[in-house]
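In this section we walk through a basic example: taking a raw amino acid sequence and producing a predicted 3D structure, encoded as discrete structure tokens. The instruction is simple. Fold the sequence below.
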Amino acid sequence: MDTATVVWIIVGVVVVLAIIGVIVYVAGRERREKKRRDDQQRAQELRRDAEARALDARENEAEATRAQADAQQAQVDADRLRQEADQRQSQAQELRASSAEQSRQADVLDPTVDTRRGRHGGGTAAPRSAASSGGAHAADARTTDQDPRRGNDDRA
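The resulting token sequence is shown next.
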């Protein structure tokens, strides 16, 4: 083999290696470019997901704030109702006391009710009887189940 042939073989090998190098370089470049595009697309998807989650988080925070406001309003309403119930209870007690006092005053004014025995209010005072003190016990037994405000018509 002469030197010219060896030179042409070396040149051919170098050309083939150069072509292979260019092919590998171009293929690697395309592969890197495809990876970059895929990574960019994946990053965009992640950003969209992050934005959607951030929106969901804000929505959940708004709902939590609304629920907290509703709970506070319910607490205010409950406090108001409790206060109203206490006020009405107080009014009822005042009315009950006033009614009992008025009934006691009526018993004092009524000549048929014996208020000396310490039985005041509620219509439980014993009516006065013309009978002696022994007969008063019998009158008490007859009239304890009767309401003196109803009059004398119902007595037996």
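Looking at the output, two observations stand out. Confidence is low (pLDDT under 50) at residues 119-123, 125-146, 152-156. Residues 1-95 form one domain. In the next section we compare this with other chains.
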